[in-house]
Design brief:
heterodimer; A: about 140 residues; alpha+beta; VC0802-like; 6-stranded antiparallel sheet; 6 strands; B: about 425 residues; alpha/beta; Rossmann fold; GMP Synthetase, Chain A, domain 3; 9-stranded mixed sheet; 4-stranded mixed sheet; about 30% helix; globular
């Protein structure tokens, strides 16, 4: 399973991030997770929200360039070595991670990792085959 | 031997004789173009002008103008006035769109060109004992070959090193003991800095003079270059459409450039009305080639703004002096010696799926022009992965390089972040100080 992530193009300059969070705040969008990637010129904000479609609509209406991508979300125990286990598995199977970030759940004490690889379908298959549960969009709300 | 003039009989010709010579040559070359260039003949017929109407200088006003757009319309050979079997050389320059403009030379035309640049060299005190370092780009650009020809004809030792590889330039200056440097003024300034960075001083090299052209520069920059390289710096003017460097040349007086008037007629006109202006009044420079045969343009509008000075010069030459170009009547930019038209950039953006909203930033850092183009991001090019977007930037940069022949840095910016203007868009932000 994958969950939807919204990526937003931002210029690398003062205020561009606060302008984005301002739009999200005014429209009552609650971010579950946020990750930033940047170069000296531009950046990409990647966010996870409970209602991806609504957030995408709002951002587009505010002239943002956005893209929705499927990423895998994995709940991992908050203890040493748990992330290593998953990354080792992906490495052994030749998966190249393009980016990854984490957030903590609202209800449980576990950590949730968001992972994006080059071939998402293959990645999901490898994880499932090895008994690692990938979180669905529905399940995300309860984490 | 210390020559003062290369061809004194022309360079110091009494004005009335010179005017007579110009008139005679104008009548001949106008007839030559009329008879051999169909495109231009049609224009003359529309204007009701025939070769019988052009008898001398006084008839110059009757001759229709040639514009850059005419070169585009007739690409590649439509304005050539001799059979291709007579053409021995081609050079090219930027057009306003993706296409280059192409010019040609006969053997005799190259001879004329060599004479013009040899006059420049002699006018700054060079002779056959000099060693000329040709650091203009060699190739389709007229800079490299232009001065190369004159220096060879004069009997100098020529080092065709071309531009770039800056440390080697300095090493050659030391080892081969070059005495005259030819390149763009910004490159000369950069060479001066590199010399210092290498822990050397002007005393370590043998240069005595430099001939710098192909881009605008100021008196302040002249003084900087003279100091950093320990030389006298001279200005040279030319453009591919008319010939190349050597259309006009500076003498040791350093007070304007003498136009080679036995080969070219210069006028200044009001760019709005096309009316000829008296000497001393600022206007658009217009050239007529009166001896060249392969590609002789009649009353070519350069879009360069300048002033003519007919006052006698301390060097004894009678050729009129033109000022450095003081600006342009169009939006052409000269960046690192290369002509760049915003319309070329617009073409590349559209071809590559970007909106024609862009902003050109030109500046000067360490005496080298910086060139950045802000382009608005589009949804189709967006990716959630940084390296994919960087790849898009690089792809656009190489598409621009192949059209502009000069590297520009592309910066993708947020949609609608570039100001939409009503009417004429302000697309160029040039922070260089180019004119005095």
């Amino acid at each position: 399973m994958t969950v939807n992530q919204i990526s937003i193009f931002l210029e690398n300059k003062p205020e561009s991030l606060s302008q984005l969070t301002d739009v999200l705040a005014k429209n009552n969008v609650n971010m579950r997770a946020l990750s930033l990637a940047d170069t000296s010129d531009f950046g990409i904000a990647r966010i996870i929200t409970d209602d991806c479609a609504a957030a995408e609509e709002i951002l587009k209406n505010n002239d943002y360039i956005v893209k929705t991508t499927g990423v895998v979300a994995i709940e991992i125990p908050d203890e040493a070595g748990s992330l290593n286990k998953i990354l080792k598995l992906l490495a052994e199977n030749g998966r190249n991670i393009e980016y990854m970030y984490g957030f903590t759940g609202r209800k449980t004490n576990s950590a949730c990792m968001i992972i994006r690889c080059t071939n998402m379908q293959k990645t999901e298959e490898i994880l499932e085959a090895n008994g690692i549960h990938t979180i669905s969009q529905e399940e995300l709300k309860d984490i | 031997m210390n020559l003062k003039y290369y061809q004194k009989e022309y360079e110091c010709m009494p004005l009335d004789e010179l005017k007579k010579l110009q008139g005679k040559r104008l009548a001949e070359n106008f007839r030559h173009v009329y008879e051999n260039v169909e495109y231009y003949r049609k224009r003359c017929q529309e204007a009701g002008v025939t070769p019988d109407d052009i008898k001398g200088l006084e008839d110059l006003d009757k001759i229709p103008f040639t514009c850059k757009d005419d070169l585009r319309q007739t690409y590649p050979y439509g304005l050539f006035a001799v059979p291709m079997s007579k053409v021995v050389r081609i050079h090219a320059s930027s057009g306003t769109t993706g296409k280059q403009i192409v010019v040609g030379y006969t053997k005799e035309d190259l001879d004329i060109w060599d004479d013009c640049t040899a006059r420049q060299l002699v006018a700054i005190g060079a002779d056959e004992n000099d060693i000329v370092q040709g650091a203009y780009g060699y190739g389709l650009f007229t800079g490299g070959f232009g001065l190369h020809g004159g220096a060879t004809k004069l009997g100098c030792e020529v080092i065709p090193i071309s531009s770039g590889n800056t440390q080697r330039q300095i090493t050659f200056m030391q080892d081969l003991k070059s005495t005259v440097l030819c390149c763009t003024p910004s490159y000369a300034a950069y060479l001066g800095e590199t010399l210092k960075d290498m822990g050397l001083s002007p005393a370590d090299i043998h240069l005595k003079a430099g001939i710098f052209g192909a881009e605008p520069w100021t008196e302040e920059m002249r003084r900087d270059i003279e100091k950093s390289l320990g030389i006298k710096a001279y200005d040279i003017y030319g453009l591919t459409e008319v010939m190349g460097p050597g259309v006009a040349y500076e003498c040791t007086e350093q007070k304007g450039m003498h136009v080679n008037e036995d080969h070219f007629i210069i006028e200044t006109i009001d760019p709005e009305t096309g009316k000829r202006l008296p000497d001393g009044e600022k206007g658009e420079l217009v050239f007529t080639a009166i001896t060249k045969k392969a590609f002789p343009l009649m009353r070519f509008r350069t879009k360069d703004i300048g002033v003519l000075n007919r006052a006698p010069c301390g060097c004894g030459r009678t050729f009129v002096r033109m000022s450095k170009p003081m600006g342009r009547t169009d939006d052409m930019l000269i960046i690192r010696g290369v002509n760049v038209f915003p319309s070329q950039i617009e073409g590349v953006l559209l071809q590559n799926g970007y909106p024609p909203n862009y902003e050109i930033h030109v500046g000067r850092e360490n005496n080298t022009d910086t060139f950045e183009i802000l382009v608005e991001m589009v949804p189709e090019k967006f990716s959630d992965v940084v390296s994919e977007i960087s790849k898009q930037e690089k792809a656009l940069e190489s598409a621009l390089l192949s059209v502009l022949q000069i590297k520009a840095k592309v910066k993708l910016v947020a949609p609608k972040s570039i100001a939409r203007s009503e009417g004429k868009a302000k697309r160029v932000i040039d922070t260089r100080k180019l004119h005095d």
